[in-house]
Structures are given as C-alpha cells and as structure tokens.
Design goal:
191 residues; mainly alpha; two-stranded antiparallel sheet; 59% helix; globular
C-alpha cells in the first residue's frame, strides 16, 4: 500500500458511492455558493487584492477555520468510540448499500482493493476525517499562497485563487452542516 494513499485517505470521503444526494452536497452546492460569493464581490466592486489584507475576508475566514480541526478531531474521537449498536448497521440508500473502495496489502505483500459497505460509524468517521484534513488544507493553502498573492498583479490569477479558496471553504461549511445534521438527527433514527 502506498504512503501517498495513506496520507490522502482522509479525502476518501469524497469517493463514497451510493449515498443519495452526496454529489450535490460535495460539489454542486459549494460551486453555486462560490459563484454567488464571487458575484457578491463583483457587485460591490470589491478590489480582490484587498480581500487578502489584514482584517479582511480571507484573513478573518482563515482565523476562524484554524480553530476547527480541534473540534473535528474531537467529533471523530467521539464517533469512533460511540457506544450504540445501531451506529454499526450498514447505511441504506435508494441505490442499495453505500460503499467505498479500500486498498490494502495481504500478508504475502500482494496489494488488493476491496469494496467495503459503509456503516454509519464509518461514514461519520470518514466525514470528520475529511473535514479535519480539508480545514488543514485550507489553512496551509492560504499560508503558502499569501507571499505569492502579494506579487501577483493579474486579476485573472487572483480570481482563480479566490474561486478555488471559496470552493474549498464552502465545501467545508456545507459538509460540516451535513455532518451536524447527521449527528444531531439522522444517527438517532433506526432506519
């Protein structure tokens, strides 16, 4: 099994198949919210470069996001140790049982890929591992990009960066709210 596979596995949440509406939560809603956000900045005639300065949108957003990994890790630990037998029942969907492909290595060293059914525990663990990794990614993306942003004078590149930042940000927020819905309501239903 490759080291890269293991390091990127928190993003495995995005590869879960068979959950109704998941692509809408994962991609469509964040894309639409990002486009609306870009439109909002354009309507207000905001100088894109000013969004990166101290006390403005990017800096304030990253300050908020930087506190989230600790909460996500605490949620992940709570889910992993949650003592209720229903949490280990397989998820069901209109499409059948949701699943994910998992890679491993047999005792003889031969790699394999298996299709694993998703339980509520696995789904939530993958979701909160993804949120933890995505929040760290957003923070690091910003930290590494700020020196470059200061040297870029092209509005196109700044808009591309801002749109990418917004997609990751909105994906983080939408997935967080989806996880809160699941923990607050869905996990307690018996079907």
């Amino acid at each position: 099994m490759s080291i890269l596979y293991q390091l990127l596995r928190p993003f495995g949440y995005l590869t879960i198949k068979g959950v109704r509406g998941k692509p809408i939560y994962d991609w469509l809603i964040p894309f639409v919210l990002s486009a609306l956000s870009m439109g909002y900045f354009q309507i207000l005639n905001v100088d894109i470069k000013s969004l990166f300065s101290d006390g403005n949108f990017i800096k304030n957003t990253v300050s908020f996001v930087s506190i989230l990994p600790g909460f996500y890790i605490a949620a992940l630990a709570a889910i992993a140790t949650f003592n209720r037998k229903e949490i280990d029942f397989p998820l069901t969907s209109d499409n059948g049982t949701p699943y994910v492909y998992v890679k491993g290595v047999k005792e003889n060293g031969i790699p394999y890929t298996t299709r694993e059914k998703i339980t509520r525990r696995i789904f939530l663990c993958m979701l909160f591992a993804f949120l933890t990794a995505e929040s760290i990614l957003l923070i690091m993306l910003n930290n590494f990009s700020l020196p470059l942003i200061a040297t870029i004078h092209s509005t196109l590149y700044l808009n591309i960066y801002l749109f990418t930042f917004l997609i990751i940000l909105w994906q983080l927020f939408v997935t967080t709210f989806f996880g809160l819905y699941y923990l607050g309501e869905r996990i307690h239903s018996n079907n």
